[in-house]
From TrEMBL:
Its EC number is 7.4.2.1. This is ABC-type polar-amino-acid transporter. It comes from the Bacteria. One of its GO terms (cellular component) is plasma membrane. It catalyses: a polar amino acid(out) + ATP + H2O = a polar amino acid(in) + ADP + phosphate + H(+). Keywords: Amino-acid transport, ATP-binding, Cell membrane, Membrane, Nucleotide-binding, Transport. It is found in: Cell membrane. InterPro entries: AAA+_ATPase, ABC_ATPase_HisP-typ, ABC_transporter-like_ATP-bd, ABC_transporter-like_CS, MetN_ABC_transporter-like, P-loop_NTPase. It is a peripheral membrane protein. One of its GO terms (molecular function) is ATPase-coupled polar amino acid-transporter activity. Belongs to the ABC transporter superfamily.
Length: 242
């Protein structure tokens, strides 16, 4: 069974149909990179996967549970799916540690002491053990994004979604964030990464998906997708970004 199965997913904003029938399956432990031009619906797709956006029609099935089923508790689903955004979205008035422990404690997943211990271990894992008591404003962009990843991991998600997690970063900070994502991939985390880092998509993903105009145009192992692109639109896109 797929960890994530998207079936004939449609999403419109008013008259603007942004997703025009997406089918996508992600196996447990699989890393899928999603590439494509700006406006092609990549973020909307990702947001539909944990229902930050309500799909217009179709199915999003996580571990066999259809999120379109009205009886599904969205809070529970969202706790199992971590999401990291381009703009970090850390709480500025809280310390790094408080940012990470907030959700597990508020949602009754851990005691304060347990959450703190876990947060410190996660900070160590992303190379920021010494920043536990810092405020987000004192961190670099790369450090903020690593805290955001640690915060998502604090909920022990089964799936991680990344939406252009490195595109707001200065170039010298991209590598440190990609390294954390790379480590998660080798640890077997199921992930969907929207990225404009073509080299990274090629290196880290098991499968790369090219979206254009609200549809999946091509989906293949990266060596194939980048090495021998079949579709004209993909070839055109790659000629502009590579
Ligand atoms: P991408 O991430 O590939 O750049 P998006 O999914 O962000 O593409 O956007 C696809 C289209 O959906 C764009 O035309 C965008 O303007 C539109 N869109 C996205 N979110 C909203 C929204 N909340 N309300 C209205 N239109 C939206
Ligand atoms: Mg986007």
């Amino acid at each position: 069974m797929s960890k994530i199965a998207v079936k004939d997913l449609h999403k419109s904003f008013g008259d603007n149909e942004v997703l025009k029938g997406i089918d996508l399956e992600v196996a447990e432990g699989e890393v899928v990179a999603v590439i494509g031009p700006s406006g092609s619906g990549k973020s909307t797709l990702l947001r539909c996967l944990n229902k930050l956006e309500e799909p217009t029609s179709g199915h999003v099935i996580i571990d066999g549970v259809d999120l379109m089923d009205k009886s599904v508790k969205l809070d529970e689903v969202r706790q199992r799916i971590g999401m990291v955004f381009q703009h970090f979205n850390l709480f500025p008035h809280m310390t790094v540690l408080e940012n990470i422990t907030l959700a597990p404690v508020e949602l009754g997943r851990a005691s304060k002491a347990q959450a703190k211990e876990r947060a410190l271990a996660l900070l160590d894992r992303v190379g920021l053990a010494e920043k536990a008591n810092a405020r987000p404003a004192s961190l670099s962009g790369g450090q903020k994004q690593r805290v955001a990843i640690a915060r998502a991991l604090a909920m022990d998600p089964e799936v991680m979604l990344f939406d252009e997690a490195t595109s707001a970063l200065d170039p010298e900070m991209v590598g440190e964030v990609l390294q954390v994502i790379r480590d998660l991939a080798s640890g077997g985390m199921t992930m969907v990464l929207v990225t404009h880092e073509m080299g990274f998509a090629r290196e880290v993903s098991h499968r790369t998906v090219f979206m254009d105009g609200g549809v999946v145009v091509e989906s293949a192992p990266p060596a194939e997708l980048f090495g021998a692109p079949k579709n004209e639109r993909l070839r055109d896109f790659l000629s502009k970004v590579l």
